[in-house]
Each structure stands twice: as structure tokens, then as C-alpha cells.
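worker-03 picked up job from queue 'complexes'. Input manifest follows; two sequence lines, order preserved.
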Amino acid sequence: MGLEASRRPARTRSRAWLRYAPLVTVALFLVPIAAGLLGTALPAFGWLPAIGGRTLTLAPWIRLFSAPGIGTAIALTVGTGLLATVLSVLLVFGLCAQIHGRKPGRTGRGLMAPILAAPHAAMAIGFAFLIAPSGWVVRLLSPWLTGWHQPPDIATVQDPYGIALMLGLLVKEVPYLLLMTFTALGQVPAARQLEAAATLGYGRTVAWLKLVLPQIYPQIRLPIYAVLAYALSVVDMALILGPSNPPTLSVLALRWFTAPEIRMYFPAAAAALLQLAIVLASIVLWRAAEVAVARFGRRWIARGGRQTRLRALTGIAAAAVAGLAGLGLASLVALGVWSFADGWSFPDFLPRHWSTRTWTRQFSMVAWPLETTLVVAVLSSAVALVLVLACLENEQRRGRPASSRALWLLYVPLLVPQIAFLFGAQVLLTVVHLDGSLVAVIWSQLLFVLPYMFLSLAEPWRSLDTRYARTALCLGSSPRRVFLRIKLPLLLRPILVAVAIGLAVSVDQYLPTLFAGAGRVVTLTTEAVTLASGGNRRITGVFALLQSVIPLAAYALAIGMPARLQFHRRQAGSTA
Amino acid sequence: MIRAKALQAAAAIAVLACLWVPPAMAGRWRNILAQARGQTVYFDAWAGDERMDAYIAWVARQVFACCDITLRQVPLEATSQAVSQVIAQKAAGDNTDGTVDLIWINGPNFYALKRRGLLYGPFTQRLPNTALVNTHDKANLYDFTVPVAGYESPWRTAQLVFVYNSAYVKHVPLGISAFPAWAKRHPGRFTFPQVQNFLGVAFLEQALYALTPDPSVLLRPVRTADFATVTAPLWAWYDRLRPYLWRHGREFPASGPAERELLQDGEIDLMPSFNPAGAAADVEAGLLPRSVRTVGLTHGTIGNTSFVAIPYNSPHKAGAMVVANFLLSPAAQARAGNVRYLGGPTVLDVAKLTAAERALFTAQSDSPWGARRAALRRVLAEPNPTWARRLAEAWERRYTP
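worker-03 finished. Artifact:
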């Protein structure tokens, strides 16, 4: 630390702007979100002069809580959101314990990439087709086994308990958490610790849970919170897989926000605030559970038990993850098949006729949104990458990870339901005459791209052994050189993964693009979701495949990173 | 060959239609055309249907060719998105530079904007082609009983019909009262979109028309009627139907297209639709099996008209008016009426057209999959827009667990 301190003056001169990186980043975020939240909070209490709300009142809340099925809707939201998150986390830990943190091979990671890259809405549409009573699974077994010549009248999709929604969330969120866990694992000397544990007679599974998990949990805490917030407030997946009578709270809010009767805007705003409260309360609850589990876990670890029966449980978890991955991949394949189908009715397992007509017909319609999507995704990811690296570098040079406290604010967009601040933010954009511009859309996506990239990059960056940098500094390298020649190459894989996530998140954004773009900026996703509202699986297939290609390319790059660079890194690692 | 020639002729007429003006309004219209030149018109339109998108793309090519207008479709998932945008702009005091130039709109969304004075107009009397509109059809003059009064221009008509798969069912109910018995014989094979969707609530309105003793109350605002008494027969009827609906009436498809998907997958055999030619067009597009048929109801069904309107703060009103006028041209109407593109009856009074223009319409014959025109003679007026919301609310209150 003394060394860091002595170097500070020189750095401040050369890179003064780095100091402001966190400030700029946070300002870019907080002002519009605060404005957006205010724009939601006021109508929730009856204030929106444009549509005649000129008194503060509790009427919107009374309307909200007297809405038919509101209790069911809240229970459904909380139940599916919490359960999906708990299960995701347990499955990820189970799988990691089972393979005791060994990173999956290139094939395993390669299979995960399409699921990570596919937008939530597209995945949901494919998954719905897979499990529907007239879907692929039933078609596989009909009529030879089931005897069904017509699909049975069973609610396997949009079931009243939200099981299909929860499964859909698991399909998407488990791979994401796995990716985050693997990234975190790279920063822990797990192999050596497991060896040490083995000499003490611990099986690898137990050793992983007792030794490695407690070290990586703090690194993946935020991703877990993000998953929790997402699962509680998801809109597009809930529209497709969740029940509609009543739907989840976020869908109810959206339904009211877009109701022809404009006065419904008031209870909609109240519902959005309630959604926010549910998310915040769930995070607090999760934090409390963490403390409790940690207390219990510490005793469990200290007792020194060598439980061997755990393997059965983790085996089940690993099988479940494999099953989910299979479902995810099959959903995407189903969409691909649909995009080439020409007449495909129950109970045919494959289309009777194939055709490229959907692709050729859509070809001319796709060019413009594809270009916009690319521009927005690349620019927002690039801006985000620069800001994230600047913030992280600033934090390290100033030797103050404490400044990361302010950066917690970055995660606000991930934790606040989109529905709660986007309308208010749109009013703000209109005031500064930016609505409908590409800049506005890039900014709105940055709100989500940046935190996700920060999430995936911060821990690897912070956990990088500081001795590399220190050694280089001692040998006379400038901080700039250390950054370019040591840190960037060592962290190339996490950086590429972060970029891939950034691109995927950008391509995935529906509501922000819609609100900031005033509907004028058309991306593959806005096009896909509107077409999905038309229920045409063929076109959805075309768009979903196109949407997945962009982030998939980046994932492929991160996963298949040139062996030479990896070798470089291993060498560096072995000298540690 | 014949088709190619017809298309060429249609295109020629299309271009002419943009330029032809009755002498009396020639000067003013020429001004509008001149102002419109070079404008980019953002057309906010529901975009769940690829054929509609393709049709609007065709319109864009025509207005660009004839009038140098760039038409951009803003795809909406729900029309209310555009409505809330205009309201957000009003909230921000953006009164001259709005982002929406033209909206495909009708019913409650129109009522919502018009009531707040957020629509530009009256403008339709300035469009030369307004003179061709069929004024015998009240649906072109009253949008869900609300007088249009020049604030929106018609372009499509719709009428409630029922589409069924004749491979599985031979007979379908031709009257509302026959639905419960039919459903009991075919449990789980009929459904309609959720009541928050306009088609879903239209099915309830259709039933109310048939069941309530005095349907004329539906044409007045709901507050003037004794809602409980008027709707009592509807709920009694619905309680008999409900157990035999798809998913036992607990879950409903989100929209018309979602319901069509169910018909295609064989999950249901019968569904309501708002486009008499929709099934025919869907068969042509490979979206429905060739065994589908379309019927109306013996005592008539609800009809309505789709309009386009211009928000008060549109910066491209002239361009929007030229597009609205083009949508009313015989060429555009004939193409929209052709099941190869969209299908559906025209809003024009064919008697007012020239012989050549009339030929564009008479060339089209009934398709085996769509509804026969003769079966749809009786059109019932869409109830006052206040009924849709009250009905949906009452339904939600009764049937949401």
C-alpha cells in the first residue's frame, strides 16, 4: 500500500480524468433513473396533471388492492421469483460441487453459449412450444404412445401456479449464474485447496462446498441479486409462459400502463412501485437468509464432517442442470425448425413441408433493424467497457476499493423493475428533445449493459493478484503500461465474456428501446416482440436466430479464445 | 399474366389516385401535397401480422413514388403504446414536435385521445378520397358509437366471424344461445382471447347483444343503463359455457393471433375472428390448415371500422394526410381487399367508383376458407366504448381467482 501511495501524485497528473470516471458513470445513471422513479411515484399518488391528476391521493393504491385477483398476482410474482432464484442457485452450486469446480470442457461451454445469447422472449417462445400440450414433447410421444390425435386440454404452459414460467426462468438464469461462478472460480486457487482438503480425507464434493464456495459466494452475490430482481419483475417471459388470469404483478402493471383507459395509469404506477417494494424486500430477505446460512455453515464446516452422501444430491443437481440445458437447446432448435416449416400440424413431429419462404420474405424487412441493433449493441457495449475499465482502474490506482460503495448505485437499474422508471425517464427525454433518437436508445441500453458488464468484470479485476502489477511498477513501467501490457492481456477472457454479456444484454432490451426510441428506433428485439405478439413462430424463429447470432459471436470468441493467449495466461498463473 | 397486368394497372391507378383531385378542392389539396413533399411520416401501427407489415411497406413504396413521402412504420405491440406516447409528450409540453404522425386506431383508443383533445382535425373533409367512402355504413361515421367528426379517416373494415376446423367439427353454432350446448358436446375445443383484448371483449358484447332483452341500451354510455340487469342473462349464459371452454375457462389466449396458433396446433376447433377474410389469407400464407371454414351468425354480428388519426402535435400533418388519402384510394383498397395480401371488405362505396376502378373489386371472388359475403349482410353496430371496459371489469371481478 505504501508503494501505491507514493505513486499517487504522478498518476493524478497524467490521468486526472480517471478520477471522475465513477462520478460520470454514476451521474449518467442516477439522474435519469431518479427522474424516472419520480415520474412513476407521483402518478402512484394521483399526480399527473397531463391526464387530469392534480391532487395527491391514495386512490391509485385503493384501486390497485381492490383489483380482482391482486392477491393471487402478488403471490404468483413472489413465489415464482423467489423459487426460481433459490433453485437456480442451488442447482449451480450442486453442479459445481459435483464437478468440484473443474471448469467444463470447451463442448460444455459451447453448448451453454447459445442459451446465454438467446433473448429471453425468444427462448420463452421456443420453450412454450416445447412443453405445450400440442408441443414437441407431446408430438414425440403421440399418437403411438399416448393415443392422442388431438392435443389434450392440459395447462402445461401458462399454468395457474407459474411452473412453466419458473422453468423458463431456470433455463435462462442457471447458465448465467454458472458463467458468473466460473468467472469467479478463476480467481480462487481452488485446485490447490481441494488437494489439501483431499489429504485431510475430504471428498472433493464436500471440500468444494466447504472450502471454495464460501470464497466465491461474495463474488457472485450481486449476480444472484440481479437474477432475483429479474425473476421477480420479468415481463416478456411472464407474458408468454405465465398465467394471464391473473398474471404476475409486472404484467398487470404493463397491462394497465397500456390500457386504452388512460386513468388506469394511476393504479399502474402504484403497481410498479409495489413491484419495486417487492424486489427490495426480497433482496433484504435474501441477505438475511445469507447471514443465517453463513452462521449455520460455519458450524457445519468447523464440525469437520466428511459427508459422502452429499454426492447423491449434487448428482441430482448436475443432472437437472444438464436437463435444463437440453430444454434450452431444444427450444432454440424448435424455433429454427419453425423458421423453415411450411405447414406443421399436430401430431407431426417434423413439418410435412419445408420452405425458405419465411427467410426470403423477411430478408428485406430485416436489414434496417439488423443494422440498428448492431450499431446500438456495439456502441453501448464499447462505451460501457470504457467506463467499466476506467472505474476499475481508477479504483485500483487510488487503492480504494471503498469507492466501489458509490458504484453500488450502478446496480440500481438491475434491481429496480424497468416498468417502475421507464415512463418517467421517457418524459425526461422528451423534455430535452432526445426521445426517438439513437443516442437515447444507446443511453437507455447502457443503463443495463453497463451494470451487467461491471458485474462480470469487477471481481476478476479486483481479484487479480496485485503482485503482477507491483512487480511491473517496480521494474519501472508506467501505470498506463501496466494497464495495457499486464492487466488487459491477463484479463482478456473476462473482458471478452463481459463484452459478450454486454452485447447479449443490449440485444435483449425491449422496454428500454421501446420507451427511449419512442417506437421509432426499430431493433431486432422490438420487431421480434411485436411479431411474437402476432404469435407467428416462423418469423419469431427467424428473428430469434438473428438476435442470438450477435452475442453468440462474442461468446464464441471468449470461449474459443486463441490457445496462445491462454497459454500466456497459464504461464503467468503458474508463476504466482 | 393477367395478374401481372392487373397489378400494373393497379399501380398506375395508385399513382393517379395520389394526384387526382376534384376541381373544387384542387388548390388546397395541391398546397397539402406541396407541403408533404420530402416529409417523413411515422405511422404507428399494430405489427403482429407480417402481411399487414408487407402491405404497409407497399403503401410506403407508393407514396414515395408519387408524392416523395417517406413512410416509416413504427411497429406497435398495442395501439395504446402510441396513445401513452402522445400523452407523455403532452405532459412534457411537447406540443409541436411529436414523434407520432399517424396512428392506426379505433374504439377506446380513439375515444381516449379525442376526449382529451389530442387529435388533429377535423381533417378528413380535406382528403379528396373521403368523397368515395361508403356513408351508408354507419361504422365509417361512428367509431364505437362515438362520432368520427373528421378526426379519423377510415381504411379497413372488420366484422365478427367464427373460424372452425372442418376436419374435426362439421357443425358449429350459428347463434349465441347455441354455444353452451355445442361446447358441452366438444369440451375444451372453443375459446376466445382474454377480455383485455378487443376481440375477447367483442365476443362478450356479441353475446350481450343476443341475450339482453333490449340491445339498444348498448349504443348509449353504460352509465345510462342498469348494468346488473342488462348483463344478468349474459353471466347466466357464460356460466353454462365456461366449464366447457378450453382450459375450463381459466386461461385464455392473449390475442387473436395467439388464438389462431391454437387452431393451427389443433388445440381448439372454433374461434372468433374480426376479419371475415382473415382465415382465407392465413391459409394462403400457410398459417392455417386448408380445412378451416368461416361463418357469421344468423342474427348478424358486430362490425367496426379501423381508422387512421393524426396526433395534435405531429410535425408532419400534411404528409400524414396524403398517406390517409392514399389508403382510401381504390387501388390501395382493392389491394387490401385481396386475400393474397390482406383480405376484407372495402370502406369505399363501390357505386361511386369508375368502371375501371370497380373492376379491381369485382375480380375478387369468395374464397372457400373465408366468410361468404352473403352470410355477413347483417352488421350490428359496435356498442358504446364505455361498455367494453365495464364488461371486461365485471368479467375480471367474477372470474379471476
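worker-03 released lock.
The mean pLDDT of chain A is 83.
Residues 70 and 246 of chain A are 7 Å apart (CA to CA).
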